[in-house]
Amino acid sequence: MTSPHLASDGLAARYLAGYPPELIAQADGLHAQGRLADYLARRFPERHEVRSDAALFDYVQALKTRYLRNAGPLNFVGFDAKLRVLQQALGTHTRRTQVQGAKLKMRREIRIATLFKTAPAALLRMIVVHELAHLRELEHNKAFYQLCQHMEPDYFQLEFDLRLYLMQLEAAAAEPVAQPTADSSGPEAP
Ligand SMILES: [Zn+2]
């Protein structure tokens, strides 16, 4: 559902780089009509209670025990206020793991951006699955995404929705006056 009357500000193109143009146009439409927050609220009514590093450790450990039992112990699990999700977590991991001798030094840390403390439960799970998969696969390659899907079958849809969520956070920060109406009786979000 595109929105020809409202000009795109390029936000969707930035958050959804690499996605099909139709999806970017849809996201642009939702954003331009001010319906992004409403769409996300409807899609993700469930919150979570993972607010501390200790709670995050337990959450990560439970998933790791279930899916990656042999991946070796984690050295660190915690929230990180400086982590930029789009560029550092979801982006191409440009900073390769340091090669020490002939051996790759695998990451044993799980850092989750602080914004996930208040994100929907499904999106926290998605980003934790993403970081857990990096215990096995450093790059965003086919094996990496297969592992993500093994842990979370809806992984690709959730990563797309996470990008919409991040997009909405930026849009909301830019326009703090925009308030969603209490009863939004508009058409169903796609
Ligand atoms: Zn990654």
Automatic annotation (TrEMBL):
It comes from Pelomonas cellulosilytica. Gene3D superfamilies: Metalloproteases ('zincins'), catalytic domain. InterPro entries: UTP_pyrophosphatase-like (IPR053136), YgjP-like_metallopeptidase (IPR002725). CDD domains: M48_yhfN_like. Residues 83-160 form the YgjP-like metallopeptidase domain. It comes from the Bacteria. Pfam families: YgjP-like. This is DUF45 domain-containing protein.
